[in-house]
Predict the 3D structure of the following.
Amino acid sequence: MARKAFLTSIRTSFEQAICTLEALGHDIGVDKGLVNQIFSANSTYVVRFGVRLRGEMHTFTGYRSVHSEHFEPVKGGIRYAPNVKQNEVEALAALMSFKCALVEVPFGGAKGGLVIDPRKWSEGELERITRRFTQELSKRDLISPSQNVPAPDIGTGEREMAWIADEYLKLHPAELNAWACVTGKPISRGGIEGRTEATGRGIQYALRAFFDNTRDLKKTGLSSGLAKKRVIVQGLGNVGFYAALFLSTEDDAIVTHVIERSGSIVNQNGINIQKLRDYINTNGTVEGFPGFVPEGTKLLEEQTDILIPAAKELVITETNASSIKAPLIVEAANGPISAEADKILLDMGKIIIPDMYANAGGVTVSYFEWIKNLSHIRFGRMQRRVEEARFGALIEGITSVTGAKFPKHLEKRAIEGGKEIDLVRSGLEDTMRSTYEVISETWNSHQDIKDLRMAAMIVAIKRIAQSYSSMGI
Ligand code: NAD
């Protein structure tokens, strides 16, 4: 029953993967009863609370769903949107369980939501609402460093996370680890370097991992290397902006199209992503930027090498799937492809890097932030200078023994110890690369496993099942 509700709640290819898994009856070595348990949300709390604003009482409805507690704390963002629904929150909580298992982040899955249109309230009003919501969650242990750790999602960001952390601290002044009650905080309030860019950075690392795997790359018909690959990005928000920026400035990919809500920018020579983002920040629209065209979603169908939907769910459906030309699609957004479209694309031979893996950079760096908060020390603080002294001595030794000069352009890189941002990026790249190899091995291990989504799902389910089994469930 729970699974049925779950399946009807999210009409995306995530659902498709579950159905296919069932239909295939593929022997993944996990007891069917246990698979059923894994597909049900353990609990969902609905909280209704009043806040007196603009001279009257307003009642708000919030959700916090815990999908699986095979690891605690459970982890998942809180979204602020007018259309938040219980079953959607439950489905997204499940996605978080699979995502965490896939990237070996020791958290269970959760998700939260508040039914609100944040644009209708002032900053001060949003702060009061968020603080009241935090009180409601805290009362029920639905926010706690050891049990339940929210993060930003659609409609929330660093600002809301700072309010939540501050309110939690007020409610639990003696809690030593109170800062770890939420991730995605500003650096000045217990956050970590690299969290804001983490999901977009993860997309870049996922693509690097894919392009380094010659066996998988061959299936797309694309030549090796990200340099000069043509890219279309939909949505230049947090995820899309950083993915497009890093791919174009660090990997020499050419972002030819940025599709936004207010129209699109097209430049076959490559769009300057930083300039475009600055323009949007100033003007609130892409209209007026060089290369502006009024078209939107239709441009997903343009000729390109890599298509990155990074805006919202269900933008590729049965109505436009057969017109998609990109051989490689990276699901930067959650659920951008419908179940029907997924099947069409698969039949067309398209390769899809699934959301469950592709956008896991955010939760991975959230995990690093949580560890930083628990250890009460910035990453690299203890060892950085020791490393620098050691590598400096090594270079001195090499030059005195050989009599040759150490190349000047390499010296800085060789000596400089890891700062927090370097360590975060290193940990994230390692996570994305090693996870890709496991998914790829599974994909190529059995002819019934037709795509990366199914492979990722199998890896995640097996890992969750293993945790349950070791607990005796
Ligand atoms: P965001 O609000 O920062 O950015 C979304 C962008 O998409 C905005 O620029 C918006 O104008 C644009 N957009 C909205 N509707 C559009 C449309 N119909 N056509 C074109 N553009 C449109 O959100 P975000 O944090 O970047 O999240 C984007 C997606 O990534 C969501 O599906 C989210 O669940 C998923 N995601 C985000 C994170 C994260 O760390 N932010 C992590 C995992 C998954």
User: Anything to note?
Assistant: The chain is about 45% helix and 15% strand. The domain at 44-190 is CATH 3.40.50.10860 (Rossmann fold). Residues 154, 199, 234-240, 259-261, 296, 310-313, 332-334, 359, 362 surround nicotinamide-adenine-dinucleotide (CB under 6 Å).
